[in-house]
Amino acid sequence: PELLSTIISAPRDVTVHPRQAGKFVLSLHNPTAGPLQAGVSVRCDNGYAITPAELAVEIPAGATRQLDFATPAAAAPATSLAAPPQADISIAFDETLQHQFSIPLRYLTVLGKELPEQPTFVLNDSAQLHSTVVNEPGSSHLFWRGPDDLSAEIRLACKEGKLALHVIATDDKHVQPFTGRDVWKGDNVQLAIAAPGQDGGWEIGFTHLANGQSEVTAWKNPKGADMAAALAKITLSTARDDERNITTYAATLPLAALGIDEDTARQGFALNVLINDNDEGSRESFLVIAPGLGRGDNNSSRYPLVCCE
């Protein structure tokens, strides 16, 4: 592994834009005293076509070759991000040394100025589910039973420097006995944002309290950010319809309050949304768009990417 790290340099991930073609670069270094023949192949497990799919190059002694690969514009696939697609890369050197590795494909979602008719993201799949219930007969009534038990439609928009978040959560029973930093134990929404150039990310909670009021709280913020000042600028309205089993959350977040300027908003930032479920006094499960939120790992490398148009 140490030798290969001095020979191969690859990006951590590949960003796929829905409207613009892009590229990424692989660097191959030859540390030997003679020329080195290298063959490279790239295949994506979801059928996305990176070109060239195969190429052969000769690397002179002591030299480094940079290989450009084109990434065509493509919309995000309508599949769960619990297992994100990836590019599988195989590199063979002089037919004696072969190395295989994978790079995640991160699809960029462009947010319009108005909330879209169709959801930006949907939470309704068992692949998105994380259960905290002990698997025993006495707890079977707490197991997730499908979208009517817990699911959500998430819509996002970006206008005049503000991020709009609208969540329609289907939940057969709304239970939220907590307030403040403990609201994650009850029914609520968690939003995570990680922007380039920031040391750490935001983790913000939106809650419909037992008394019918709305509450915004936060658990994490980037180093140096003023959490209280940011929360004071976020607005939230919530409503619960027990007849339809629907809880609605509508939040507006000024991006500048989160330390995200116009250029960063246009280039893109990572975002994740989670909905918690509590039916009998404690969190029994949650649904999340992508891994990295909800279990304390706070790893934004697999979050979906969004940008403001």
Order of helices and strands: HEEEEEEEEEEEEEEEHEEHEEE
CATH top level class name of the largest domain: Mainly Beta
Form type: elongated
Task: List low-confidence stretches.
Answer: none
Cα distance spanning the termini: 41 Å
Radius of gyration in whole Å, from Cα?
A: 22 Å
- Tally the structural domains: 2
User: From the coordinates shown, what is the CATH architecture of the largest domain?
Assistant: Sandwich
Question: What is the number of strand segments?
Answer: 20
Number of helical regions: 3
What proportion of the residues is helical, as a percent range? under 10%
Strand content: over 45%
What would you call the structural class? mainly beta
Characterize the structure shown:
This protein is mostly beta strands and 309 residues long. The protein has helices spanning 2-7, 227-232, 262-267; strands at 8-9, 14-16, 22-29, 36-44, 54-59, 64-71, 86-93, 97-111, 121-123, 129-131, 150-159, 162-171, 188-194, 202-208, 214-220, 235-241, 246-254, 269-278, 283-288, 305-308. The protein has two domains: 2-108, Immunoglobulin-like (Sandwich); 112-308, Immunoglobulin-like. It contains three helices and 20 strands. Strands 2, 4, 5, 7, 8, 10, 13, 14, 15, 18, 19 and 20 form a twelve-stranded mixed sheet that branches. It has a five-stranded antiparallel sheet with strand order 9-11-12-17-16. The chain is elongated and about 75 Å long. The two termini are 41 Å apart. 34% of the residues are buried. The model has no long low-confidence stretch (mean pLDDT 91).
